[in-house]
Amino acid sequence: AHLARIDAIDEKVHAFLHVDREGALAQARAVDEKRARGEKLGPLAGVPLALKDIFTTEGVPTTVGSKILEGWIPPYDATLTKRLKDADVVILGKTNMDEFAMGSSTENSAYGPTGNPWDLTKIPGGSGGGSSAALASFEAPLAIGTDTGGSIRQPAAVTGTVGVKPTYGAVSRYGMVAFSSSLDQGGPCARTVLDAALLHEVIAGHDPLDSTSIDAPVPPVVEAARNGDVKGMRVGVVKQFRGEGYQAGVLQRFDESVELLKELGAEVVEVDCPSFDLALAAYYLIAPSECSSNLARFDGLRYGRRAGDDGTRSAEDVTALTREAGFGPEVKRRVMLGTYALSSGYYDAYYGSAQKVRTLITRDFEKAFEQVDVMVSPTTPTTAFAIGERADDPMAMYLADLCTIPTNLAGNAAMSLPCGLAPEDGLPVGLQIIAPAMKDDRLYKVGAAVE
Ligand code: GLN
């Protein structure tokens, strides 16, 4: 049924870069056979899922939304892919994304934009716009995203779906193409809080193949999602996340959510996080710096596409020509920015300062979480903007992640879930819930209560 739905509408939505029809049907048949044999089935047996094209899939193309990996067929599965298969999930295919997960609209994909199913002229968020659009258009009931600065939560917000960035280190990065390794985190996307929790439990957990993977039990997220409750909880409203640049309808729906939390028995206070105002600036030094190092491996010699190799050119020239042809403008911009910020003479002024700001942000969180159990804010300052509207204005694009980035810098957990439609444009608004590291279950407890 989901493949038929994809056939019917994906030409318009363009959520998928690759539909793995054969693979999906084979996985589904394998589940049926297991069932017929009376074997124990995985926890998500037979449930279809849309996988962001940043995770390697053995024998199935993985492009990261980039021309530089066009035609590359990975010889191995990411740990996350393997876990999905072990849970008997049916992987429908690979979803569209901003190239190397750099963007907030999916317009930076080398393979063309994805439409927001609520209004195809609007962006579905980014970088994981393909995954969120697949959910919102009922092409898949579950999806996977990655969140370096908001790429799970912002797409969830603008498509009226649920997205969770787990605590940093909760979900293995092995086989997840690296953008900014100290920020990157895979996570679950779904249409309900409980669905997200069921997927969360399948993909989280220690992996010896990822040196930053947390070696501790996964928080009880499914139990929390089944027992939504905020009675007696202390909820902090982030003072910094409103004011200029926030759409009236977004703030209206957010304020209603805060009222609902009070009605349900939560104690609401304001929390002050002054360093959050610097988060965007710090992020746009740290993320490009790490990306300039991570993307050095795309040299035209090891993976995917190679340009200009006519037998007369040096390896260096082939690498330069491959990158020129293979990387899009946003990727080039970030590699240049990051290389500059890391160069001797500028390192302390830029990268060093950004790391200090990162520490201040972490302290703001620590202080706030001494007073409250969770924090809340709008997920994004505005609802979905029009395709093309911010494409030529990187600074305007970066603002889409204003409220989501602090969590990535500090490494704690956050969720976005729908909280109604903005009256002025009828588009979905996202409520962000933020929890301390390794307290991911609180997101689900609160999320399920207000859903
Ligand atoms: N929009 C942010 C960026 O462009 C975040 C991307 C992400 O989370 N992958 O870097």
From TrEMBL:
Its EC number is 6.3.5.7. It catalyses: L-glutamyl-tRNA(Gln) + L-glutamine + ATP + H2O = L-glutaminyl-tRNA(Gln) + L-glutamate + ADP + phosphate + H(+). Residues 1-443 form the Amidase domain. Keywords: ATP-binding, Ligase, Nucleotide-binding, Protein biosynthesis. The active site is at residues 52, 127, 151. It comes from the Bacteria. It is an enzyme of class 6 (ligase). Belongs to the amidase family. GatA subfamily. Heterotrimer of A, B and C subunits. PANTHER family: GLUTAMYL-TRNA(GLN) AMIDOTRANSFERASE SUBUNIT A, TRANSAMIDASE. Allows the formation of correctly charged Gln-tRNA(Gln) through the transamidation of misacylated Glu-tRNA(Gln) in organisms which lack glutaminyl-tRNA synthetase. The reaction takes place in the presence of glutamine and ATP through an activated gamma-phospho-Glu-tRNA(Gln). This is Glutamyl-tRNA(Gln) amidotransferase subunit A.
